[in-house]
Amino acid sequence: MRAAVLREFNKDLVIEDVPMPECPPDGVVLKVLACGVCRSDWHGWVGEHPRIKPGQIGGHEYCGEVVEAGPMATYKLGDRLVAPFILACGKCPACHSGHSNTCPDQRLPGFIEPGAFAQYVAVPFDHNLTLLPEGLSPTVAAGLGCRVTTAWHALTDRAALMGGEWLAVHGTGGVGLSAALLGKALGARVIAVDIVQDKLDHAVGLGIDYGVNASDGDVAAQIKKITGGGAHVSVEALGINQTVQASIDCLRPLGRHVQVGMPVGHTATMQINMNTVYMGNLALYGTRGMPAHRYPSLLALIEAGMVDFTPLIAREIKLSETGRELAAFNGPTPPGVAVITDFLN
């Protein structure tokens, strides 16, 4: 099968013919129908993700069709499935308590084992997957596996965002724009923050209430003026020091900051003003992925027409163009995300 393989950090991925994956006894092999290109993949491509090494086949935002099922598999041939990027064991205390995204025995295609920048991908622990709803295209569904599920968990399970509250989202890439759209669907008033005006215009065009250009000065002061005192919830969707501090600074007393952006490599350790946290009685939440049992609540929102993620998809690309998309994350990116839909070229 064809796959895009990381051979050198910061170099174009190499398209290679590699062996078909073996089917796990408790899982399936999927023919990949679509796979998103995510900033988390970029962290590995530049060599800052500690788990990703040369030889890795990336890709963790995938949707596919079952072409082989193991003897203990949950699904059958022909099923079309959406995959979370964290595959939890289902047996440990974390899984039993409903927090499977913290499972200590989790499997991670695209990070440790071969991912979906390929024609086929093996998926163990397939009880984490869910059937693709009718009416939801594989291209849009591919984006649910990381950016949308992460945003949903951040807003509902971590921050407990409520209708009528002010939500600030710092960074309008895939996960940031997903958080903004979900915030609107939950009834919040939403402010998007970025340094790329086209991305802010895109967000406002999709119904986001305000766009704040971080290049125009003090972000926190602008948000406090708009909201009359600060956001109730603020999401940081980049993983860099400057936006983390801006996210904390823009909150009103008793506000909730949610760390969605991945702090890894040179951003793993940051300096923030803890006095702001102390004086404001703020809450700081970390979040990563989403427990698989939360899929029905998210998919129900989509199927009911309360949120449309079609505008999230800006580009459908070939497998051979994946490296180009990863390199684009080296600078400010255009609106929307890229999804691989052509695995033959």
TrEMBL record:
<dbReference type="GO" id="GO:0008270">
    <property type="term" value="F:zinc ion binding"/>
</dbReference>
<dbReference type="InterPro" id="IPR013149">
    <property type="entry name" value="ADH-like_C"/>
</dbReference>
<keyword id="KW-0862">Zinc</keyword>
<comment type="similarity">
    <text>Belongs to the zinc-containing alcohol dehydrogenase family.</text>
</comment>
<dbReference type="InterPro" id="IPR002328">
    <property type="entry name" value="ADH_Zn_CS"/>
</dbReference>
<dbReference type="InterPro" id="IPR036291">
    <property type="entry name" value="NAD(P)-bd_dom_sf"/>
</dbReference>
<dbReference type="InterPro" id="IPR050129">
    <property type="entry name" value="Zn_alcohol_dh"/>
</dbReference>
<keyword id="KW-0479">Metal-binding</keyword>
<dbReference type="InterPro" id="IPR013154">
    <property type="entry name" value="ADH-like_N"/>
</dbReference>
<protein>
    <submittedName>
        <fullName>Alcohol dehydrogenase</fullName>
        <ecNumber>1.1.1.1</ecNumber>
    </submittedName>
</protein>
<dbReference type="InterPro" id="IPR020843">
    <property type="entry name" value="ER"/>
</dbReference>
<dbReference type="Pfam" id="PF00107">
    <property type="entry name" value="ADH_zinc_N"/>
</dbReference>
<dbReference type="GO" id="GO:0004022">
    <property type="term" value="F:alcohol dehydrogenase (NAD+) activity"/>
</dbReference>
<keyword id="KW-0560">Oxidoreductase</keyword>
<dbReference type="Pfam" id="PF08240">
    <property type="entry name" value="ADH_N"/>
</dbReference>
<dbReference type="InterPro" id="IPR011032">
    <property type="entry name" value="GroES-like_sf"/>
</dbReference>
